[in-house]
Design brief:
Blueprint lengths: L2 H26 L1 H5 L8 H5 L3 H20 L6 H26 L4 H25 L6
Length: 137
């Protein structure tokens, strides 16, 4: 494994993931979340726990990039796109519809989470596909 490229991939994927998370949840879904205020923790309580999603996103990023390197076939950006699509389809059902069962949210929000998970994984897959290169022999 090319550790330098792996590290760069992790940083790039993490940054893209953070930007997309902000845009999706703080901009695109903000109105929907506002209409469901009774479902969420109080904002002050959530702010005191921001370290949790930061930590989980770092762990997710490292694993996402690591799994990509294990199956790396040197096929360019399309390999990253395909990988992202598979990972998105792997994660999206439990990241959306299981929460629909647990929380009193709308099915529209569950659908939005489903699509957002796939889009985020595809974009992150593209990024890791563009940045990662194997170690030179």
């Amino acid at each position: 494994m090319n550790m330098k490229r792996f590290g760069l991939s992790c940083i790039a994927v993490w940054l893209v993931y953070q930007v997309m998370t902000f845009v999706i949840h703080q901009v695109l879904l903000a109105e929907t979340y506002g209409s469901l205020k009774s479902v969420w923790r109080a904002e002050a309580e959530m702010m005191s726990m921001l370290w949790i999603p930061m930590l989980t996103s770092v762990v997710w990023t490292i694993l996402f990039c690591y799994i990509f390197t294990r199956g790396y076939e040197n096929r360019g950006p399309m390999e990253g796109l395909r990988y992202g699509l598979v990972m998105g389809l792997f994660l999206a059902p439990i990241n959306s519809y299981d929460w629909y069962m647990v929380l009193p949210i709308t099915i529209g929000l569950a659908h939005a989470w489903f699509v957002a998970t796939i889009v985020m994984a595809v974009v992150c897959g593209l990024v890791v596909g563009l940045v990662y290169r194997p170690a030179e022999a």
